[in-house]
Structures are given as C-alpha cells and as structure tokens.
Design a protein that fits this description.
The protein is mostly helical and about 675 residues long. The protein contains 23 helices and five strands. α17 packs parallel to α19. The radius of gyration is 25 Å and the shape is globular. About 50% of the residues are buried.
C-alpha cells in the first residue's frame, strides 16, 4: 500500500482502515507548545485492576484511545459523508486533464461499494435514494469508463428517470454537468461576479453569506461567468438521464403558490440577471473578476486548501483553471495536493473526505480520557494538549469584517485553517485543555484567555452564537434559487450557544455575566414546545438538547426549573426498549421523528451526558443507558455504529464522524462513575 503522506490517520477510526495523513506544513511552533517524544512505555496504558463491568468498559475504551493516538499527539478519524465528494473529484480531474487511471479505478470501486441494492445512492446510511447524489455517481462512473449497459448504471438510471431525471436535480449537480456540456448553463441560477463588489454595509453582500457559502460562491462566480464547457466523447455523455430532450421551459425554476413570496421574487430577479449577464454592457465585470481572483488567491492557506472544505477547494481550483492558470501553477498544484491530503486510500478504494477534523477529534478524545479519570499529568494528555496549543489561530480571518476590534484567537477544525476558526471547536478545545498539566501553563493560559475573548466577541445580537461569523442572519438569502441546500447563512443556534455557556461556566463565569444572560434568553426563546432544542451540527434534537443542558449546568442555572425539567422528561421519553437512544436523520424533515431511531452509541452518550448534567445520574433511565453501553461494547473497547449522527447541512448533507461512536460513550461512562462512585 502506498501513500503520499508521512503520518497515518488513526487506523481503527476509518471505514477502510487505510492510510492517510497530515500534510507537512511549515507551521511556526509557539513557545511552550513543544511536543515531547515520550517512549511508549511511559504513555501507553498500563492495565489496572478492574472492579466492575463499568470499570472494565472504561478501561477498554481508554486503552483504545491510547492505542489510536498518533505519534505527534493528535487523533484523527475519518469524516464520512456521501459519494458526491469523490464523484466531483473524478469530474475535476477529467476537466483538468489529470486522469490517473489507477486512482480512478479505486474511486470507482468506492462509488460502487456505496450503491444500494435498489440501484441508488443515499446521503446517509439507510436513507432514501437521493436523486442528485445518484446522478453525480452515475456521471462519474461514465467518465471513468463504465458503459451505460453496466448493471450498476442500468439500475441507477431507472431510479434517476423515475425521479424526473437531471432536470429535477440540485444546483451543484447541474453546475458539474454544465462544465461538460451535459446541461445548459441557462438552467443554472445566476450568481453574478459583480456580487463581489457590493460594499460590506450593503444589506446583501458576500460577507452576509456563511463562510462555507462565501468560500464556494466567490470562485464559482468566476466559473459561472466564464461558463466553460469541456466536451465529452459520446461514450461518456449522460443525455440518457433526461426523461425527454430538454426544452427552454425546462431550465426555468418552479414558483411557489401565492401572489407574492420571497422565493418567487428571487426567481423573477434571476430572470432579470440572466438578461443582464447576456448583455455586452457589463461595466463592472472586469473589476469584479479581478477582485474575485484576488480573493481566491489571498484565501489559499499555506496547506494549499481553501476554507478547509472540499467545495471551496474544488471550485477554487476550477476558477483558477478557467482563468488560464496552468495545472503546474503553484496555486493550482498546491490546491490539488491539498485535495490529495483529504483522501483515504487503500489497495482497492480511494475516498475523498469533504473535510478533515483532527483538532475536533483530538479535543473530543482528550475530554473523553479526562472524564475517564486519566490523570491530568498523564503523558498522553500532555502530548495531545501541546499539539492543540500549536494550532491556535493567531491571524485575522473573515470574521474580522464584522468584528474589526476583536483580536485573533481560538481554533479551527482542520490541521490548518487560519481564515476560518469556529466557536464550537474553540470552545471544546479549551474545555478539554483545562487542567491538563502541560509544561508551560502560562502559555496555555494565555492561549485560553485569547480564545475565550474571541469566542465572547463572536456572540450575535440575539444572544446566540453561529459557527464562523456573528450576526450572519439574512434568512432571505436561503430563498434565492441558488440556495436549494438552504445553507447560505450561519445563524446562531442552540447547540453552539449551549457550548459557549459550558465554556463560560467551566472557566468560572457567573450566570449573571451579561453574555451568559443574553445566551440564556436566546435558549429559552428557541426551545421546542415539547422541551428539546434543535441540533444544527449533530443529529438532531438529542444533540442540541445535550449541548444545552451541559451548558446550563456549567453556568449554574437551577436545573430544577420547569423549562429544564421539560427537556429532561423529553429525553427520558425517547429512551428505546434496549436502554439506548437514537435519532434518524429524517427528523430534520419530519419533526415528529425527533429523538426517535435505532439506538446508537454516540446518541446514547449525548442523552446520558445531558441527563447527568441535569442531576439524573441516579435515575433508572440513566442506569439503563449505562447498561446499554456496557452490553454493546466490543472486546477491543470500541462500539459499532452504522448510522450517521453528524450534520453538515440539515436535510441535505449528513456526516459520520468515526470518532463519535467511541468518544461520547467513554465520556458518559466516565462521568457516571465520577458522579455515582461506580455503583452498579
């Protein structure tokens, strides 16, 4: 097995057990954050005397994390999503003329391995067939040389046509088809490049979009202005995916019922923009293109990527290519290397991840080990903490536009993403770091102080927190035709607000602190009628309610208050017969499914942590949940979990974090033992 990387991913935390790694970066080492190389005899676990099944379960999970810690001190698990990420990678390489047939064979194997018996592809395990995902997988396989008569494509095509064909697919799917002349650019919603010239004070400007949308839209606006077409040979075309030959009316957008709706208004505006885009008189075009190009080049990280996510990276490479940059140009070649760094490759499969999460994974692992009773000066904890400290963000990012007075601080999700730190990672990193006996406590305390100040400065006017920006609340943007993923903004949410309360409480802030008071009011206003809180970054109400309850307990809220008891009773009411908890991704579409689904290790961990934060450690509900975790643990100290319990974009992009099934059960078991003394 070969790999272009120097260090392996945590091998037991992937679906392939393959090899990938951290790219080598010239990251400046900060004072007090040197990683000491402990000999294995010191930092590997030493078996202790197990006194109960609970102790055995904790020790087994603890030892698993010791084994999976990588030499530099971090943990890094696979971030699994759906096949569009890898399918689009195949498309990009064909567009650029960079096809490697061996790697393409492995990617095709991966795509085929994820096809269901019915012939479609899904966006999460066990989910319904997804039209756009199936179209993109089909197209990628055609590009890779699979004929239309191949059994896998025959079944997929039947599903696609049964769902209305390409015309009914989502915007990004149509854009990729348009790049190859398989869909008319006329049917793609307008995103004029001149949008980049709107001033920051304008009601709609590029900084009113979410960070992930901004980092994708700016390069895409270049591509959509150029409207390139890479013609394909007949064998690779996919015109068979149209129910009938498309007509001009097929490229229009379906209006909503009603005399006036914002969606209908923007559809009308899109028609006007298309007329403008066809006009030879676009006086600001040249200036807008130059500004977009400058933005793309400026926002490329030292690691070569953009925004830390595949859509931004892929579209930035596309944009530079259509602007005339050669594949050998440093910006393009580094971008392509960055995409390679997101890959997990084995002898037979290659998958491109949508993102990588080593900072998040490391913080979760450290918190789980701390909750499991690992001493604060244990070399494994020290090594992980020092690795995290090296990744503190000390540069201003896009968040500076709305917070010009705020000093940099905090942490990002990836190995390196200085433009986009986020409050969730920052909060959890600092909670995990607290109390770990690193060599230079003063340097750590300074980093934590900067991180807390940055997080507090990111609070929105309504009292809540979004992930990457403050006051990113122009909900009207999700009504434009381009926004069929309903994810163009990053508004404050309950789960992130709960995390910020937990951060404040962990570091001694009182409930009367103004930021905490505003956060409490936000959470009370956003509680669901039955008691839970919606989860933006995890599935779904179980995730949101866990985060909020932990935050409320940490900040010192009276956990006997009626609104909290309502949430507690809701969690109890959702416990499954087997003692665990689970929630289907479908709850984003149908709220009556909130907290309902097959039990999973991660979601059971969330439910238990939320209940124990509310003082329920001695309840029979918690005892049954603990018994479920103990009884479902594997002999190697891990848990199985096929379901997706992470969220990228609610409804449309779900994630399976391969570390979740192990870290959250360990947190729950360790917390239970601490609170009860390990009573059986």
């Amino acid at each position: 097995m070969t790999s272009p990387f120097k260090h392996p991913i945590s091998h037991a935390l992937t679906s392939f057990n393959g090899i990938a790694s951290e790219p080598e970066l010239n990251v400046e080492h900060k004072a007090g954050a040197t990683v000491h190389q402990f000999p294995p005899a010191l930092w590997k676990s030493k078996p202790g005397k197990a006194k109960s099944p609970l102790d055995l379960a904790i020790e087994g999970s603890r030892d698993f994390f010791f084994r999976e810690q990588l030499p530099k001190g971090y943990w890094w698990a696979e971030l699994e999503s759906n096949v569009t990420i890898t399918a689009e990678y195949i498309m990009l390489l064909h567009f650029l003329g960079l096809v490697d047939h061996e790697r393409e064979r492995k990617m095709s194997n991966y795509l085929l391995s994820k096809q269901t018996e019915e012939g479609f592809w899904t966006i999460y395990y066990g989910g319904p067939g997804d039209l756009s995902t199936t179209v993109e997988a089909y197209f990628a396989l055609k590009l890779a040389g699979y004929p239309a008569e191949h059994p896998a494509l025959v079944k997929a095509r039947a599903f696609i046509l049964g769902k209305g064909g390409v015309i009914k697919s989502r915007v990004f799917t149509k854009i990729f088809l348009a790049l190859f002349g398989e869909f008319d650019w006329l049917g793609v919603p307008s995103m004029p490049v001149e949008l980049n010239l709107l001033p920051n004070w304008a009601y709609i400007n590029i900084y009113e979009f979410s960070s992930w949308a901004r980092a994708t839209i700016i390069p895409l606006s270049i591509v959509m202005f150029k409207r390139p077409v890479h013609k394909l040979p007949p064998a690779q075309r996919v015109q068979e995916l149209f129910v009938r030959p498309p007509r001009a009316i097929d490229y229009t957008f379906t209006k909503e019922e009603g005399i006036f709706t914002w969606k209908n208004f923007f559809i009308g505006l899109d028609h006007m923009l298309k007329v403008y885009e066809r006009s030879p008189l676009r006086p600001f075009r040249k200036r807008a293109m130059a500004k977009a190009e400058e933005w793309v080049l400026e926002h490329q990280e030292e690691s070569g990527d953009w925004g830390g996510i595949q859509p931004a990276m892929l579209n930035a490479v596309l944009a530079l290519s259509v602007l005339g940059y050669e594949n050998e140009h440093p910006a393009v070649s580094q971008g392509l290397k960055a995409l390679e760094h997101f890959c997990i490759e084995t002898d037979d499969h290659l998958v491109l991840q949508s993102c990588v999460s080593p900072v998040w994974d490391t913080a979760l692992a450290l918190k789980a080990l701390i909750d499991a009773g690992v001493p604060s000066d244990h070399p494994s904890l020290v090594k992980g903490a020092q690795w995290l400290l090296e990744r503190e963000v000390r540069k201003p990012g896009d968040w500076k536009i709305k917070s010009p007075e705020l000093e940099p601080g905090g942490w990002a999700f990836e190995f390196l993403n200085d433009w986009y730190p986020d409050v969730d990672d920052s909060g959890f990193v600092m909670i995990a770091l607290k109390g770990i006996e690193v060599k230079d406590r003063r340097s750590m305390n300074d980093a934590v102080k900067r991180g807390i100040n940055w997080c507090l400065g990111m609070q929105s006017k309504n009292g809540g927190w979004g992930a990457f920006d403050k006051d990113n609340t122009r909900h009207i943007l999700n009504k434009i035709p381009f926004a069929d993923l309903e994810a163009l903004i990053d508004p404050p949410t309950a789960d992130l607000t709960g995390r910020m309360l937990e951060l404040m409480g962990t570091f001694g802030y009182a409930k009367t602190f103004p930021a905490a008071q505003r956060a409490l009011e936000f959470l009370k206003k956003n509680q669901e009628p039955e008691g839970p809180w919606w989860g933006r970054w995890g599935v779904n109400y179980l995730y949101g309610t866990w985060s909020v309850l932990c935050g409320l307990a940490a900040i010192g809220e009276d956990m006997e208050l009626p609104y909290i008891k309502k949430a507690v009773n809701w969690i109890k009411s959702r416990q499954n017969i087997d003692g665990g908890w689970g929630e289907t991704c479908e709850s984003y579409h149908d709220a009556t499914l909130a907290g309902m689904g097959e039990s999973t290790a991660s979601q059971t961990g969330w439910a238990l942590l939320g209940l124990m934060a509310a003082g329920e450690a001695d309840s029979s509900t918690v005892v049954r949940g603990i018994q479920y975790l103990i009884s479902t643990q594997r002999q190697d100290g891990t848990w199985d979990e096929t379901q997706y319990t992470g969220t990228g974009f609610p409804k449309y992009f779900m994630i399976k974090y391969h570390i979740y099934r192990n870290c959250f059960p360990l947190m729950a078991l360790g917390t239970y033992r601490t609170l009860t003394g390990g009573a059986e």
